[in-house]
Amino acid sequence: MTSREAARMLDTAPRRTPRRVTPKTALLMWLATAGPGLAVMLADTDAGSLITAAQSGATWGYSLLLAQLVLIPIVFVVQELTVRLGLVTGKGHGELIRERFGTGWAWLSVSTLVLACAGAIVTEMSGIAGVGMMWGLPKWVGTLAVVAFLAIMVVTGSYRRVERVAIAVGLFELVFLVTMFLAGPDPHQIVRGLATFPIGNSDYMFLIAANIGAVVMPWMIFYQQSAVVDKGLTVKHLRIARWDTAVGSVITQLVMVGMLVTVAATLWAHGQQNASLNTVQDISDAITPHLGDFAGRVLFSLGMVGASLIAAIVASLTAAWGLGEVTGYKRSLEHSPREAPWFYAVFFVVILAGAMIVLSGVNLIQLNLWVQVMNALLLPTVLTFLYLLARKALSGRFRLAGAYRWIVLAIIAATAGLGVYSAVMGILGT
Predict the structure, then answer these.
(1) Rounded to an integer, what distance in angstroms lies between the CA atom of residue 69 and that of residue 254?
(2) 139-156 and 159-170 are packed helices; what angle lies between their axes, rounded to 10 degrees?
(3) Of residues 75, 58, 128, the one with CA closest to residue 307
(4) Cβ(52)–Cβ(211) below 8 Å
(5) DSSP of 38-54, one letter per residue?
(6) What are phi and psi of 233, to 5 degrees?
């Protein structure tokens, strides 16, 4: 069943034969409609996010665990607005900004998007290259393998096929829930960590900013709005799309919790707070002795590669979609490279630029952390546009209004404000 067939069933079944919408039919409609939310949330827990969670657990134990839980409703609120905008208007995020605020503001917004996407691509490729090096492969082999995988999948696939592949590889991230239990965390240490907030420490504040930027990312907003449009979903799918997003919000943060707890239980709990984590292999080496060398490496590799691949798919497509929404070029996976040359050109430029940076020899762990902090610094611009669009581009019962409007405004202001404050305090070291 395609998403458009599901739309017709939703339109007709309730009015004509309401009693014939069986549980099986309802499940099929949900499966046909769901996907963008789960895909973007699995991509949210990318290589950079996992590295940030690992660094948080190694350095501060369970003190940043509460932040992961608090971010669940926050990321849902943000992405639900994105879904609402896409389904009601049938337009992408950049296109709506251009229509409502003008070309200049649209270019400002898409510039932050491209910057965030470029950073994301670098983190994903660095994650896979790091896993390859852990198994004895040169960095260039893992990097070029990612480029080839992305190119073949996007050029030869429709949106629906790309989404299925993305979700399939992204689900490997769930192995970190397994490693969390295998690590045997101390419940008493977890409880103490949940009540510990050393906010006077600049390193701690830097990681708060990195964790916020690792969860609420600019490219997520653009991707999910463009994805629901490209998939052909309409406002009739809003309820299912919200559930899709809610389930994804919980899963993505559980994976972050899994990585943080795994590393906290294996490093921090054994007095190795100052363990050197400069490469992906360092993280794997730190946790595998406690999980079994071979099994630990396999589990870590599956989780990291799955997280990196789905995020690479999402981030590269987002850049191509976002620029297309501002410039007006054709921008659908349903078009061939000949029909939409600029869409595919932008896609390839982004992934090739990411590959070149990864192969340049920079410290990939530190680069990943700084990318997440950069995301936190971009939040005021991104979230402000999102809020204004929810007020101006929507009408009737879909418009952001009433008490919920003020709740959303408070959440957005607090998230963006804390992200920027933590980033500045962490960078300045005050």
Answers:
(1) 8
(2) 140
(3) 128
(4) yes
(5) HHHHHHHS-HHHHHHHH
(6) -80, 155
Q: Are 38 and 251 in contact (CB under 8 A)?
A: yes
CA distance 31 to 72: 23
Give the model's pLDDT for residue 409: 93
Quick one: pLDDT at residue 73? 92
Segment 164-210, tens digit of pLDDT: 777 777 777 888 888 888 888 888 998 998 888 887 888 888 888 88
- With CA atoms as reference, report the closest residue to 207 among 70, 365, 418, 55: 55
Phi and psi angles of residue 78, each rounded to the nearest 5 degrees, phi first: -65, -50
Q: What is the distance between the alpha carbons of residues 44 and 39, in angstroms, rounded to a whole number?
A: 9
Both tokens of 28, joined, read 């099929």
Other C-beta atoms closer than 10 Å to the C-beta of 31 total 12
One-letter amino acid identity for 214? Answer: A
Encoded tokens for 404: 């919920």
Q: How far is CA 106 from the centre of its chain?
A: 22
User: How far, in Å, CA of 113 to CA of 350, rounded?
Assistant: 12
Under 8 Å between Cβ of 389 and 363: no
Q: What is the DSSP letter of 399?
A: S
Which pLDDT does position 12 carry in this prediction? Answer: 44
CA-to-CA distance for 211 and 48, rounded, in angstroms? 10
CB 170 within 8 A of CB 39: yes
Q: What is the DSSP string of 279-326?
A: SHHHHHHHHHHHH-HHHHHHHHHHHHHHHHHHHHHHHHHHHHHHHHHH
Q: What is the pLDDT of residue 23?
A: 63
Residues of the chain where predicted confidence (pLDDT) is lower than 50: 1-19
Determine the pLDDT at residue 388.
92
Q: How far is CA 240 from the centre of its chain?
A: 20
Res 48: pLDDT? 76
Residues 6+ apart with CB under 8 A from 354: 118, 121, 122, 124, 125
- Token couple for 307: 């997280």
Q: Can you list the positions of beta strands (E) in 23-155?
A: none
